[in-house]
Amino acid sequence: MTNTDRSIIASFFISVDGVVDAPQQWHFPYATDDVARVVSHATEGVDALLMGRRTFEEWKAFWPTQRGYPLADFINGTHKYVASDTLADPGWGPSSVLSGDVAARVAALKRTEGGTIAVNGSGTLTRHLLQAGLVDALHLLVHPIVVGTGKHLFEAGAAPVGLSLQSQETFDSGVTYQIYTPATTTRQ
Q1: What pLDDT is stored for residue 158 in this prediction?
Q2: Where is the Bacterial bifunctional deaminase-reductase C-terminal domain (predicted)?
Q3: Nearest to 21 by CA among 151, 162, 132, 113
Q4: Mean pLDDT across the stretch 49-54?
Q5: pLDDT tops 90 at residue 167
Q6: Which of 15, 97, 113, 121 has the fewest CB atoms lying closer than 10 Å?
Q7: Which class would CATH give 8-182?
């Protein structure tokens, strides 16, 4: 990386069976002080949020009405980049739409000056960016629950992407916090 390259960190609440969909339905029994600490630290150095259209629309329906606490103020005030070929006017600012070749647009965004770019709750986009080699770190809060149905972070049919475990922490709730970076080689 040159000194102007920005990092992309993708973070997820994820079940043991890989579901990242609708964490509001299964995450809260595990929302301990340890998890809150991780979420709070996840905003440090971040000056942009990158998300897919569906996640953007879900967040747009919720976050603008939330005010007065640090996470809500951070999300509402941080620039949001939305990967979409169908969204013309985001209607929730500050925001910009990235259309067309998303990997090329995100690669160009990474070359601009600024802080860390965070991806949260956008599994399809994260898979695409991982395949393109654009994700610098993957932060997973793995919950000790099998959800059974919903969208999975990793879907069948994708090419292997090697990851290297950088750290792991286990909380009393059974949640593990795992940080991965791209591996230099992929084991098969």
Answers
A1: 74
A2: 7-176
A3: 151
A4: 94
A5: yes
A6: 113
A7: alpha beta
pLDDT tens digits, 7-32: 999 999 999 999 998 888 899 999 99
Q: How many CB atoms lie within 10 A of CB 170?
A: 13
Distance, in Å, from the CA atom of 39 to the CA atom of 62, rounded to the nearest integer, reads: 18
Phi first, then psi: give them for residue 49, nearest 5 degrees. -110, 135
pLDDT in tens, 101-134: 999 999 999 999 999 999 998 988 999 999 999 9
What residue spans of the chain are helical by DSSP H?
A: 33-41, 53-62, 70-77, 102-110, 123-131
Distance, in Å, from the CA atom of 42 to the CA atom of 90, rounded to the nearest integer, reads: 24
* Prior bond of 23 cis (ω within 30°): no
* Chain center to CA of 116: 12
Other residues' Cβ atoms within 10 Å of the Cβ of residue 155:
11
Distance, CA of 145 to CA of 124 (rounded, Å): 22
